[in-house]
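One-letter codes give the sequence; backbone shape is given numerically. An example follows:

. . .
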Amino acid sequence: MSLTDTVAAFESGLGGGATTALSYAMLGTFAVAISRSGITDVLAQKVIKRLSGTENAAAATGVKYSVISILALLAISSQNAIPVHIAFIPIVIPPLLHVFAKLKLDRRLIACVLTFGLVTPYMLLPVGFGGIFLNNILLKNLHDNGLDVTAAQVPYAMIIPAAGMLFGLLVAVFFSYRKPREYSVEKILANEPEHKTINMRHVYIAIVAIVAALGAQIYSGSMIIGGLMGFMVFTFGGVIKWKETHDVFTKGVHMMAMIGFIMIAAAGFAR
């Protein structure tokens, strides 16, 4: 193809990524609203409370692997049940940094756990972001290139790379980054206080918003509608004031703008 034809083909494919980009922007807004509710601070405080009662190495190890498991589940659910994708990381991780320091958890291990939870689900599960990747991107482009493939076949083709992700996670947890690593708790607490005032009403509204977003997504088949529904619950519930909605939306778009741009560009290159 000539340069002119290449550019023309690229531009014609950009529109195919617009829906995905808008989904990311809306879910970024939803994620910012979740962070305002304080629900992640509740999780952090519960872990800290449990950690303060551990006096032996075995109990601390149990808490350590519990934290790792919870983070893995959160990362996995961020792709489908609570479709906020990577937007949950700046919401969940900062309140837990001092927990990691007290447990002497290697942050590289946390990065591996998050990577596994963020990537593997959308390789296999055609729900949420997995639906976007497997059906809207992978399957669509296979059809566009003349391959006769059904939606049910696509997840099976992704089992091998998903197994590789699982193997990498196990190596990271039990070999590469299992040794304790020291971090300065004082520096962390200076930027992220351990104790915060939490409005439990906002936490309950956050739970309702998450359920509403998931239900709307499943019913409509649109992540945009799901994110919008969740944001509306936060707004009408009083977690986000009307005068703050523009600021929250702007922060959400800013958080996910790069991902949205990548998805638009990817659609152009796929064309």
Q: What stands out?
A: The mean pLDDT is 76. The first helix runs from residue 3 to 14. The chain is about 75% helix and 0% strand.
